[in-house]
């Protein structure tokens, strides 16, 4: 499952688009919550500048090794560099924003 919300004219790796990969294990309540929270945060703070790839480790367990996934759900920011990981259901919006470098720890809403 992949969700895209990027400008079709944008291309290249350093195009300002956040490329995110969410690792889940089936359609558990925690996985569904993480997906919904991620979509909400992206729509509010990265509208038009993000791409989400959801990887279900129940279907493809071998894919966990590539991004060194030890717990689920885990969000991996692949671009912009450097690679970042956030573990959990992404319910703490401020933690997600800081973890993805969308908002600094000292920034006020």
UniProtKB/TrEMBL annotation:
<dbReference type="InterPro" id="IPR011649">
    <property type="entry name" value="KaiB_domain"/>
</dbReference>
<dbReference type="Pfam" id="PF07689">
    <property type="entry name" value="KaiB"/>
</dbReference>
<protein>
    <submittedName>
        <fullName>Circadian clock protein KaiB</fullName>
    </submittedName>
</protein>
<feature type="domain" description="KaiB">
    <location>
        <begin position="21"/>
        <end position="102"/>
    </location>
</feature>
<dbReference type="InterPro" id="IPR036249">
    <property type="entry name" value="Thioredoxin-like_sf"/>
</dbReference>
<dbReference type="GO" id="GO:0048511">
    <property type="term" value="P:rhythmic process"/>
</dbReference>
<dbReference type="InterPro" id="IPR039022">
    <property type="entry name" value="KaiB-like"/>
</dbReference>
